[in-house]
Design goal:
298 residues; alpha/beta; Rossmann fold; 6-stranded mixed β-sheet; two-stranded antiparallel sheet; 9 helices; 12 strands; 37% helix; 27% strand; elongated
Length: 298
């Protein structure tokens, strides 16, 4: 049989390859890295916590609220307690950088929320407060002492208690004047608010047929509240309706502020930007080399 000759590529092996041919494979590598990085960026990686400290303007505040049964009197809308909670929440929402706590008192007192910058939790706890959580009575000394205790170790340069009540001190074993002296020793200013209209107001009274309202004389120990405020360098205010109560909180809102160091936590922080930038860099390198250095390669 005749021998047939078939062409092949063996002759090209005699020619050495240039460095450009070897490096041309980098274009494929650039493309792979670009795709991988784009996929990661689209997945939107995030860090779970991002803790940082910032210097900001603010003060440490504790709101001490009377929740005795008389706070259900209807000379405010819907009642004294409801109006006090609403105005307190509006006050908190306007002071985003302040550490604020919440104390309630009746015949005794307890801390509903320690001072915190997490105002969402604080507001939720305020909304949960209702009259009857503690045995009835008005322990102003106890309420003030508990609020002072929450602030005495606070690092804030400016510390304030806003104490709101509608009655006379008739419970507890801590004298309000003594609690005020302790507050003064710790440089804690106390702003006192007496809540109740002038004259008569409809108070809740338990009867054999259920709860009813009877007009009774409003009795607020204004001399005591003024003494507490004067002892600590604060001020006393009288709120006779919803409007004046709101105005009082607006006045307190204008208090001087001191610089504090605030530790802030962000639960999620996006981390996709570096991956997107790297993907752009690799894509740029591929295009640049393809149309410059390796432009004339087969």
């Amino acid at each position: 049989m005749p021998v047939q000759t078939i062409s092949g590529l063996q002759m090209f092996n005699k020619f050495p390859r240039s460095w450009k041919e070897y490096l041309s494979h980098s274009l494929f590598v650039f493309r792979i890295f670009t795709i991988i990085l784009i996929i990661i960026a689209i997945a939107k990686p995030q860090s779970s916590y991002d803790k940082h400290k910032v210097k900001t303007e603010g003060i440490d505040i504790v709101i001490a609220l009377d929740i005795s049964s008389t706070m259900l009197a209807r000379d405010f809308s819907p009642d004294r307690l409801g109006a006090a909670k609403k105005v307190a929440i509006n006050f908190i929402e306007g002071r985003k950088n302040d550490r604020i706590g919440f104390v309630v008192f009746s015949s005794e007192s307890f801390t509903q929320c320690p001072i915190t910058t997490d105002h969402t939790i604080l507001i939720n706890l305020i909304n949960e407060v209702k009259s009857g959580m503690i045995e009835d009575g008005t322990a102003i000394g106890h309420g003030l002492a508990t609020a002072v205790d929450r602030l005495r170790t606070s690092p804030g340069k400016s510390r304030v208690v806003i104490l709101l009540t509608d009655g006379m001190n008739n419970a507890g074993f801590i004298n309000p004047a003594t609690a005020a002296d302790i507050a003064r020793q710790y440089n804690i200013r106390v702003y006192t608010i007496g809540v109740g209209t002038m004259g008569m107001a409809p108070y809740p009274v338990q009867t054999p047929f259920g709860m009813s309202y009877q007009n009774m004389e409003v009795q607020i120990d204004e001399p005591l509240l003024k003494q507490i405020a004067e002892t600590t360098g604060g001020s006393y205010y009288r709120a006779v309706n919803n409007r004046t109560l709101k105005e009082i909180y607006e006045k307190i809102d204008q208090m001087e502020k001191a610089k504090i160091e605030l530790t802030s936590y962000r639960h999620f922080t996006d981390k996709y930007l570096p991956f997107a930038l790297l993907a752009g860099i690799f894509l740029f390198l591929e295009i640049m080399f393809r149309y410059t250095v390796f432009k004339y390669l087969p």
